[in-house]
Design goal:
Pfam families: DUF1648. With about 160 residues, the protein is mainly alpha-helical. About 60% of the residues lie in helices and about 5% in strands. About 20% of the residues are buried.
Length: about 160
């Protein structure tokens, strides 16, 4: 890692667009959460099983946990995105370093924004379940979420090998 070149790379427009979508969605979720908080019951879903059914109920204060964790994760990954020279690469050379760094930065960007959107969805769904408008996350939630994350990582790993 010490001998990996440090190259100043500008963030691609696509990454900026993803950041904007994630930030707007997160802000909208917070506005919705604060506006609906008083009308929510005292008990809200605290955890779901693998089938997407509620298996623990908790205090409605817990609705703030996921947005806080999501924001902290997003900020951490935002900072990490700025240091692609610290990532591990399979085939990094002086010749392909810039392309590899762009790929690594974009992967970090896509993953961080997928994560914050996931936390937004779960928080929104917790509110819907608590209000009686939904029964859980649904049986397809876990496979879809895991499939999305693994597909994202796979796409960028394939790109890394090809570069």
């Amino acid at each position: 890692m010490n001998n990996q070149p440090k190259i100043d790379i500008t963030k691609p427009r696509f990454a900026l667009l993803l950041d904007a979508i994630a930030i707007i969605t997160f802000a909208a979720l917070l506005i919705y959460l604060f506006s609906q908080y008083g009308s929510l019951p005292d008990r809200v879903p605290g955890h779901y099983n693998g089938a997407g059914k509620v298996d623990r109920w908790g205090s409605k204060v817990e609705l703030f946990f996921l947005p806080i964790i999501g924001a902290a994760l997003w900020i951490f990954m935002f900072v990490m995105e700025k240091f692609p020279h610290t990532y591990n690469y399979l085939n990094l050379t002086e010749k392909n370093a810039e392309a590899q760094y762009r790929n690594g930065m974009l992967m970090m960007n896509v993953l961080k924004n997928e994560m914050i959107l996931l936390f937004c969805f779960i928080t929104y769904q917790n509110m819907q379940v608590a209000s009686g408008n939904a029964e859980g996350l649904g049986t397809g939630f876990m496979p879809i979420f895991l499939g999305l994350i693994f597909a994202t990582i796979s796409v960028f790993m394939v790109r890394m090998v090809r570069l």
